[in-house]
Write the structure tokens for this entry.
Amino acid sequence: MTLYQLEVFTLVAKVQSFTKAARELHVGQPSISALIIQLQKELGLKLFEKFGLKSHLTEAGKRFLQRTEKILKLVEESRDEMEQFKGLKKGKISIGSSGMGASLILQAVEKFKERYPEIDMSLTFQQSEALHQKLLSGEVDVALLGRHIKSPLIIAKPYRDDEMVFIVPPKHPLAKKPSVPLNLLAQEHFISYETAAPVIEKMEQRFAAKGIAFKPSLEIRLSMGSRDAIKSAVSTGLGISILTKCHILGDVKAGRLKILHVPELKLKRTLYIAFHKNRRESSWVQSFVAFLKAYKNG
């Protein structure tokens, strides 16, 4: 049984005529008949019955056609996928990331580039709202966003969750406490930054639920939201702050920072992977999204 036999069988079933099928395939009618006869011998079943000028499927033929159509569809999809894969040899991907996903995306792009060295890749680091606009305009193909974007044109799916922790210098009075209550935390100088706005909003809600006003005696705003700048400000004693745990473990190990245990306040920040819904069929977008999903714990 060959793929060509299945294609011929399906065509004959569609046009209900060996002669018409031969005409569409630009071959002689005897060739079509011979192929079908060979197929019937191999199956041990009659697939067509002649009624007047038309060839109709037998019950076995109808069942076989259902299977054949599925096989041919799968073959076509496989061909398309291989064509898309060939396209990966030469292509361009524009990738964006908010500050939260910066280190991860840099590592992922490096590994992806090793696998597909001929693909041109560009990286853009901006806030989620700006990246949203670039996704809409087509300037960016895929982006890691620090907040969920509600848009009928953008598909944004949760990618990974990271625990958020409060950090202080090792000699800070709170660093010595086995647990820190919210009322003490609310009295500290707090270093905030624009990209943490969703997390800070949740934090304020938790404080409010406990009847505690979160009004730090000093609030320092870093518009760029650089993790290094935040960690430096905390380590020099300017105030406390909150960052994703995975980004400060090295500093904790080196003795530059200390994580506070705040049992009343457990916060996580979700990173989203987003792309324009009209670009999801793009071979390079599909491949990079699949790669990111596999790499997220890497």
Q: What stands out?
A: The two ends are 45 Å apart (CA to CA). The longest strand covers residues 154-168. The chain has a mean pLDDT of 83. Residues 43 and 241 are 73 Å apart (CA to CA).
